[in-house]
Amino acid sequence: MERTLVIVKPDAFEKGATGKIIDRFLSEGFRIVALKLFRFTTEQAKGFYIVHKDRPFYRELVEFMTSGPVVAMVLEGEDAIRRVREIIGPTDSEEARRVAPNSIRALFGTDKGKNAVHASDSVESAQYEIPFIFSRLEMVE
Ligand code: RTP
Ligand code: MG
């Protein structure tokens, strides 16, 4: 069993797509072990995406992620990190609509920046991201 962090980003939350996105993960067989609604401060968003600090889109990403509430969850399942990345589709929502039309980003994202969801991309990133957002008390066993 593996755990991964998913965030419904401000664009998808604003659209009212949170329920559909959660439902999709449940129907794909994942178990929710933690869940919450909050809004990132600038410092928190910078820290969460620190791996991208030198990328040209870092500032835009932090602005986007702090622009409204998000819903974060920890999903558990076999091969969860890889499978969730597959279900969300490519980073660019327009590309997602071409190559993975049933992916979450194809269905709910707009473009490369506003792409509806975040998901951990490796065991290392999940190990950084899960405790960044959730304390042990907020996760079920
Ligand atoms: P995420 O971390 O949010 O799950 O997305 P990802 O792995 O598919 O993509 P990543 O390369 O990690 O980029 C993180 C987020 O930064 C925004 N981005 N904007 N304008 C741009 O060129 C650009 N490139 C990336 C997106 O919101 C992306 O999800
Ligand atoms: Mg990423």
TrEMBL record:
<keyword id="KW-0479">Metal-binding</keyword>
<feature type="domain" description="Nucleoside diphosphate kinase-like">
    <location>
        <begin position="1"/>
        <end position="141"/>
    </location>
</feature>
<dbReference type="GO" id="GO:0004550">
    <property type="term" value="F:nucleoside diphosphate kinase activity"/>
</dbReference>
<keyword id="KW-0460">Magnesium</keyword>
<feature type="binding site">
    <location>
        <position position="9"/>
    </location>
    <ligand>
        <name>ATP</name>
    </ligand>
</feature>
<keyword id="KW-0808">Transferase</keyword>
<dbReference type="GO" id="GO:0006241">
    <property type="term" value="P:CTP biosynthetic process"/>
</dbReference>
<dbReference type="Pfam" id="PF00334">
    <property type="entry name" value="NDK"/>
</dbReference>
<feature type="binding site">
    <location>
        <position position="91"/>
    </location>
    <ligand>
        <name>ATP</name>
    </ligand>
</feature>
<keyword id="KW-0963">Cytoplasm</keyword>
<feature type="binding site">
    <location>
        <position position="105"/>
    </location>
    <ligand>
        <name>ATP</name>
    </ligand>
</feature>
<feature type="active site" description="Pros-phosphohistidine intermediate">
    <location>
        <position position="118"/>
    </location>
</feature>
<dbReference type="GO" id="GO:0006228">
    <property type="term" value="P:UTP biosynthetic process"/>
</dbReference>
<comment type="similarity">
    <text>Belongs to the NDK family.</text>
</comment>
<dbReference type="InterPro" id="IPR023005">
    <property type="entry name" value="Nucleoside_diP_kinase_AS"/>
</dbReference>
<keyword id="KW-0597">Phosphoprotein</keyword>
<protein>
    <recommendedName>
        <fullName>Nucleoside diphosphate kinase</fullName>
        <ecNumber>2.7.4.6</ecNumber>
    </recommendedName>
</protein>
<keyword id="KW-0067">ATP-binding</keyword>
<dbReference type="GO" id="GO:0005524">
    <property type="term" value="F:ATP binding"/>
</dbReference>
<keyword id="KW-0546">Nucleotide metabolism</keyword>
<feature type="binding site">
    <location>
        <position position="85"/>
    </location>
    <ligand>
        <name>ATP</name>
    </ligand>
</feature>
<keyword id="KW-0418">Kinase</keyword>
<feature type="binding site">
    <location>
        <position position="57"/>
    </location>
    <ligand>
        <name>ATP</name>
    </ligand>
</feature>
<keyword id="KW-0547">Nucleotide-binding</keyword>
<comment type="subunit">
    <text>Homotetramer.</text>
</comment>
<comment type="function">
    <text>Major role in the synthesis of nucleoside triphosphates other than ATP. The ATP gamma phosphate is transferred to the NDP beta phosphate via a ping-pong mechanism, using a phosphorylated active-site intermediate.</text>
</comment>
<dbReference type="GO" id="GO:0006183">
    <property type="term" value="P:GTP biosynthetic process"/>
</dbReference>
<dbReference type="InterPro" id="IPR001564">
    <property type="entry name" value="Nucleoside_diP_kinase"/>
</dbReference>
<dbReference type="InterPro" id="IPR034907">
    <property type="entry name" value="NDK-like_dom"/>
</dbReference>
<dbReference type="GO" id="GO:0046872">
    <property type="term" value="F:metal ion binding"/>
</dbReference>
<dbReference type="InterPro" id="IPR036850">
    <property type="entry name" value="NDK-like_dom_sf"/>
</dbReference>
<dbReference type="GO" id="GO:0005737">
    <property type="term" value="C:cytoplasm"/>
</dbReference>
<feature type="binding site">
    <location>
        <position position="115"/>
    </location>
    <ligand>
        <name>ATP</name>
    </ligand>
</feature>
